[in-house]
Every structure is written in C-alpha cells, then in structure tokens.
Specification:
It is built from ten helices and no strands. Helices cover 63% and strands 0% of the residues.
Length: 194
C-alpha cells in the first residue's frame, strides 16, 4: 500500500519540520523525475511520484546515513505503507547488497542485520530501479548529470563502489530504451527547478 499523493506530500512536510535540510527538495526532485519517466514507460505515474517523495523519509528522524534506510522502512511499515517501506529500503542498494553502500555505516548491529535480511528477501521491480535511477540524478531542487551526481557523492564520502557506479549507468540506459528518448530530456533537466 501507498498513501495518496496529498498524504505523501504531508508526510514529507512533517518530516522536514522535524529535520530541516536539503533532503526535502531532493525528494521532490526524485518524485518529479520518477513521475516523468513513469508516464513515458507505461508505469503508474502517481505511484512513482509517491515512491520518490518518500524514499528518504527516514531522514525525518535526524542526520543518519545507513540508518535512514531502516528508519524510513520501519516508519512506513508502522503507517501501513509497505510499498513505500520497500522503496525506503531498496533505494540505496542498486546492487541489492549492503556491501556497496556509499556513506557512513551508522546503523546499529541489529539494524544492519535487519537491512541485510530485508534486502535478501526483496524482489526488485521497475519501481525500485526507477527510484534508484532518479536518486542518482537528483540534487536538492534540480536535476543533475548522473556522472556529476556520482562524483559529488564520491567527493563527499571518499569512494563510490564501481559496481554501483556501473549499475547506475545501466539503469540510465535501461529506462532510456524503455522511453525511446534521452533521460535528461524526459525529466526536463534544463527546465526543472524548485
């Protein structure tokens, strides 16, 4: 299950009031990109938009890196939104393994074990892949070139797993082929700004 678009926007605003920061506009950018791509690939555009809005909702609980994944998953499960919970979990793992996580591993041992277990159980679909791609091209209120975004993350954290990098490039070509057009044109890269 997913919340309505209106409820998802409300959840995001509530989260921003608890932990203000650029993650809110980043989430809106992911939602915009996901909706644009979904419309052009026959996917449910509302579902894609909602998943994009809520993928980082674990950040409402404070500044955490790996921890935001499990915080968001648990929060969405508590609200009964299992589809959103899955996206909160999968968006950071385009290779479906915790091994290539980029960022601080600040989750507790039990949280990390839960993430690993839930990842092993997850069956990825095009909504998981779509949000992973859109996360990899979204700044805080604007669309970025995928290589620039990955380099930005690499510069902030000191590394970027090669298999994660290559899979992001694959996701770009995968959705371009499904759309039959350039990714950046599809998501209005030059025109979209919050």
């Amino acid at each position: 299950m997913l919340p309505t678009k209106e409820r998802a926007e409300e959840i995001l605003r509530e989260g921003e009031s608890m932990n203000p920061g650029p993650w809110g506009d980043h989430s809106r950018t992911v939602a915009h990109c996901a909706q644009c791509i979904a419309k052009q690939t026959g996917m449910d555009a509302d579902k894609a938009y909602i998943a994009g809005l809520l993928h980082d909702i674990g950040r409402r609980f404070g500044k955490r890196h790996l921890g935001h994944v499990i915080d968001g998953y648990r929060y969405m499960m508590d609200l009964g939104y299992d589809e959103a919970a899955k996206i909160c979990l999968t968006h950071s793992f385009n290779v479906q393994s915790i091994d290539n996580y980029v960022g601080n591993r600040d989750a507790t041992e039990s949280e990390t074990e839960e993430i690993i277990r839930k990842l092993e159980e997850a069956v990825y679909d095009d909504y998981d892949r779509l949000i992973q791609l859109c996360d990899a091209i979204s700044g805080a209120g604007f669309v970025m070139d995928i290589v620039d975004r990955m380099n930005d993350v690499k510069n902030r954290y000191g590394s970027y797993a090669q298999d994660k990098w290559e899979n992001n490039i694959y996701l770009k070509s995968y959705f371009e082929e499904k759309m039959g057009r350039d990714l950046y044109e599809a998501v209005e890269k030059e025109r979209f700004h919050i």
